[in-house]
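Lab notebook: predicted structure, single chain.

Context: the supervisor wants predicted structures on file for every construct in the current expression panel, including those that have not yet been purified. This is the next one on the list. No modifications to the sequence; it matches the entry in the shared construct table.
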Amino acid sequence: MPDISVSVIIACGGNSSRMNGINKQLAEICGIPAVIRSMLAFDGIDEVTEIIAAAQETDIPEIERLAKKHGVKKFRLAVCGGETRQRSVFNAFMQTDKSTRYIAVHDGARPLVSPEHIKKCIRDASVFGGAILGVPVKDTLKVVNGGLISDTPDRRSLYIAQTPQIFRRDIYVKGINFALDHDLDFTDDCQLAEAVGVKICVSPSDHTNIKITTREDMDIAEAFLKRRENL
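Prediction complete. Output recorded below exactly as produced.
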């Protein structure tokens, strides 16, 4: 894909509140820390020019050490995150190379993302201006108010949003400025683009691209990885 360059932001500033004291970013999945597995998924992709992590200040030295130890060639630096995910990503965005044309944001706690899916997401972003990985929901969902079901949405139109979420730089800047101007704080980077009227493509992913939020998720991730690598 000519003329496509991507700065990758790894969001790893969460406090792991549901992990019973385990730092999910640094927790090892089959011997390699989750955040490093997330970086390595991007490191071998030609269009990726740099990887920047947004992390808690206390984790930065260890993340930098681990990136070097595990040979993440495109890792450039880690920056201190902010009070919210959006602020953390913004801090990292300010350090990206201004010449890159696309910004990709990925959760450090999604260590099993497939490089093939990342490449497809980059291609889709280059066509539509923005793309995210996603999968159809498998369960029936209920809208609940006051403990009572108020609606059952048609699951055929519902998707689980994953990462990476990739946007043309100018679209991402426009979304950030809109959020800052209106004092908005989004939990999902795609909402920045949606807020300024951009239609975002959903690139098909799979259900192994899980986000680690509990200790049970670590066991699931290891099982997926062992099956993938025939360990």
